[in-house]
Amino acid sequence: SAVISQKPSRDICQRGTSLTIQCQVDSQVTMMFWYRQQPGQSLTLIATANQGSEATYESGFVIDKFPISRPNLTFSTLTVSNMSPEDSSIYLCSVGLLRGETQYFGPGTRLLVL
Amino acid sequence: AQSVTQLGSHVSVSEGALVLLRCNYSSSVPPYLFWYVQYPNQGLQLLLKYTTGATLVKGINGFEAEFKKSETSFHLTKPSAHMSDAAEYFCAVSDSRGNDYKLSFGAGTTVTVRA
User: Are B2 and B70 in contact (CB under 8 A)?
Assistant: First the structure.
């Protein structure tokens, strides 16, 4: 497995502002993913962030709202832009290990937008 | 495309009793199957997975699951529940023939354990 950390662990933000979430891995990985978990719900994939290429967004998620950076093989950021209360969720990053098929998750960032 | 159905959003068991969480999947290609557990205020932890080979897979904390292709199922069991098993459990599936390994998650099952 891998040790995955996320910063911040939680935050309370005002509507209209933006928050950048960091994901750090203790080893080099090609595949990284960002998920959203809305209150009491399951996980939904936001985008795949592979190093050396642009992030690939899932249906319903757009780059202007959730810009992603992947500057190297151990780090990625997800920005939640122009936040509204509907963005209140847990945001999790994961990495694909072994051949990439097994994902390990970070501890998540708990975001509350007022 | 893949999808997952978890039967039962809440399961309550007595300490020491069998835990059975049901997961059925839909996939047009051979799937990779996973169970994750989420404890309160934590991220997801991998319990076990099926990719190829033996259809009965053992995971951490005494859990195991059996891949049944004919039933398109991957149910999770533990013979004897412990209070520490109280958590949310997610079944997930990905496409074994693709190279993007995107996971599709079920809705989750919350397990409570009665003393």
Answer: no
